[in-house]
Amino acid sequence: MSSQASRLMSRPNGPGRDVETGTLTRTRSKTQRPPLYKVLMLNDDYTPMEFVVHVLERFFGMPHQQAVELMLTVHRKGVAVVGVFSFEIAETKVTQVMDYARRNQHPLQCTMERE
Ligand code: TYC
To answer: Lowest CB count within 10 Å: 17, 24, 30, 104, which one?
Structure first.
């Protein structure tokens, strides 16, 4: 059931005046946003730079030049956020990257954390 529907059901007389007490009633609608998750790429000493660039293009839809720059940020700093997603999408990205790295025998690590 939608949150709008449940709000209406919990206040069957609708916004306005309580039928018994005459009290004016109003419910404030606080819109809930789903939590977001950062996907992080970790540096290591063995994964080739070109492979990381390819991963950023393939799984994160990044243009080549942006992928090169972000790869170099990870290389220099040790870690960088490569995208922010809903839980399900972030989890899928992490799984795809980890599987792809493993299949290609690279130790590349990718994780997620709540924003
Ligand atoms: N440090 C790696 C190298 O010098 C390159 C690299 C960059 C590896 C980013 C992982 O997430 C990474 N070949």
So the answer is: 30
